[in-house]
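Let's do one together. I've listed all components of the complex below, 752 residues spread over two lines.
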Amino acid sequence: MAGKKKKSSSMNTSIRDVGFRTAFIKGNGITKLSAVIFGLGNLLHKQIIRGLIMLSLEIAYIYYMISFGLNSIKNFITLGTKVQEEVFNEAKQIYEYVTGDNSMLCLLYGVITIVLTLGFILFLITSVKSAYGTQKKIELGKPVPTFKDDLSSLLEQNLHKTLLFTPMIGVLCFTIIPLFFMALIAFTSYDRNHQTPGNLFSWVGFDNFIALFSKGSKLSHTFWPVLGWTFTWAIFATFTCYILGMLLAMLINREGTRFKGFWRFIFVLSIAVPQFVSLLTMRTIFNANGPVNVMLRQIGVIGIRDSIPFFTDPLLAKITIICINIWIGVPFTMLTTTGILQNIPKELYEAAKVDGANAFVTFFKITLPYMLFVTTPTLITAFAGNINNFNVIFLLSGGGPETLDYYYAGKTDLLVTWLYKLTITNKDYNLGAVISILVFIIMATLTLLTYRRTGSYKDEEAFQ
Amino acid sequence: MKKTTMKMRQLITNIIVHVFLAVLGFIWVLPIFFVILTSLRKEAGQYKSYIFPRAYTLDNYKKLFDQASSLTFGRWFINTLIVAIFTCIFSAFFVLCVSYVMSRLRFKMRKKFLNIAMILGMFPGFMSMYAIYFILKGFGMLEAGPLKLVALVMVYSGGAGLGFLVAKGFFDTIPKTIDEAAFIDGATKWDVFRKITIPLSKPIIVITILNAFMAPWVDYIFAKVILGQDRKYYTIAIGLWTMLEKEFVEYYYTQFFAGCVLISIPIAILFLIIQRFYVEGVSGAVKG
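Okay, and this is what the predicted structure of the assembly comes out as:
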C-alpha cells in the first residue's frame, strides 16, 4: 500500500523535492519575482489565501526590521555605546541617572533579529519553491491544490509538519536560542567588572578561551584539575552503579533466593524518595555532627570531640560522594537489569553447566557480554548524565572543601558546578559560557562517536 | 553422599546470600528510617548527641501548615501542583508528537533531524539556564509574582520535545502492518495517529505524563534561578531547601523532614503506578 501511494504521488513529490536553485533558475518570471514579493506565484494562480499568508509574513518582517530590527543589528555589532551616566539636575539639585545602553539586551535583541532573519530567508525559499510548484502543475495541466487541499495535506503527507510545529517552537525558544545566546557570551567581556545596566561589555574574540588555557594562570590551574575530577567522577559513578546494580539484580534473581519481591521493594524504596530529599538527608547524616559521627563516637571508634571529615577532607569527600551515589544509583540499575537478565536464554546457562563452567566463567562469558550489548545506550547516557550531575555534587558537598588554589571552585566541583559558581555567584558570565561550550564539545563528541554505533540507532526498524 | 554435600553447600550459599541481602537492605532503608524518625522528633534543633529521639510528636507536620509561619508549605504545595499539571500537559503533548513523527513518518529531513536532536538533547538544560534566565528577564517574565510560575512551566516544557527517544523506541515496536491495514480502509495518517497509535501506546503515555508531572516536584536548580527571592512563589523543592538555610535551620530542622515525608508519599505512590508500566516502556527502547 505504501509503495502504491508513493507511485501515485511521485509527480508531486518530485516537484516538492526540487531545490531552491533549480526552482529559481527553471522558474518563469513570476516564480523569480516570488523571491521579492512572497506568495506572488500563488496569488496569480488562484491560491489566494496561501499567497496572502506569505505576503503578510513578508510585510510583518519588513515592518519589524524598519521599526526595530535594523537598529538592533547595529547595537548587536557595537554592544552599546552609551554608558549609564550620573547627571546633575540643576532644577531639582540632585544627581539623576541617565539610562545608557544595556549590552545584554543589545545582544539578546540582536540574536532574536538574526533568528527572525533566518526564518525570513527560509520563507523566501519556500515562496520560490511553492511558486515553482504551482507553475509546474499548470504547465502539466494538473489541478492546482486549493487552500482546502493544503489544509488537509497537513493531516496526510505533511502530517509531520503539523505535529512538529509546536514542539519545535518550544525547542527553538528554550534550547536553540539560549545555546546560541550563551555561545556568543563566550566571546564578550561580560564578567563581574562589566555588569549591565551600569556598565557596558564588548566583543573580545577568543580572549576568554586563551585565558582559560594559558599556562600558569589561576584559571588553567583550576580548569585541568576540575576536568580531571569530572572524568574520574563520571567513570567511577557510572561503573560502580552499573556493576553493583547488576550484581544485586543477579543475587535477587538467582534460583535459591527467597522473597524476591520483598528484596526488590526494599531497594526500590530509595528511588521513591525525591533525589534532593535523599541527598540533603545524606549530607546531614555524614555531617561533622551527624548521626554517623555520633554513632562512631558512641561505639568509641573515634574520640568524643573528634569527627571523621566526610566532606571537609578533599580525598575523603570524593570517596564519600561516590559511595553515596552508589546508594542512590544502584536501585535504578537493579531495576533495568532485572528485566534484561530474565531475557537471557536459559539454554546458554545450561550448556555452560554441562561444559563444567563455574559461576565466574558464566558471568564473564555469558551474562556480561549480553548485558553490555543490550545496555550500551543506557550506559552512555548514564556517563553523559554523570559528567553533568549537578544535583549530587551541589546538594551533597556544594563543591567543597574550598581551596585557595582554585579560581572560585572547591575540590569536589565538577565543571557544571564550577560553571554555576562562576555565573550565579560570581557573575563571570563569559567564563561560564566558555566552560559550557567546552562541556558541550566533549558531550557531543562522546555521544556521536558511541551512540551512532549502537544497534538502536542503526537498526531502528528491527521491530517493525 | 555426594548429593548431601552439594545440598549443604547450596544451603550455606543461600544463607550467606540472604544475610548479605539483609545487611544491604538495612543500609538502604536506614536513611529513610532516619528521615521518618527525625520528622517525628519532639526536640527542635539540628544535631543531637543521640540518634533516637527522646520524645515523639506530630507537631512538625501540623506546623508546616501554620498560617503565621513565614515559610508557607501549603502555598508551595499548591504552586508546585499548578506548575506540575501544566508542565505535564504540555510536555507530554510535545513528546508524543515528536516521537510519533520520528518513529512512524518518513520525510526528507528525518535523519538529519534525529542527529541534531540527539546532539541538542545531550546539552544539559542546566547549561543554557542563565541564557534562559536572561531571555525571560529581557521579556519581563521575572518581575511580577505569578508570571514566574508561568515562566517555570515554559522552561520545563519548552525543550521537552527533545526527550522523545524512549517513546520513539516504544512506537518503533508497534507493527507497521496495523497502520497499513488502516490505510487500506481509507484512514488518513492523522486518523491512524489518533485512533490506532495513541490507544495502543497507553503505557508509554502514562510514563511520559507521570515523568513530566514529577519533574517540577524534584527540580531544584531551575526553580532556584527563576523564582529568585520571592518566597511566596517558591516550589516545594526550594522551599524545603530554604528550611535548611542558616537563619531557619535551628527552628525548622525537624519540620524539614516532616515536609520531606509529606512529598515523598505522593511521589512514592506515583512511582509505584509507573512501575506497572515501566518494564514495557523501557524494554521497548533498550531491545534494539
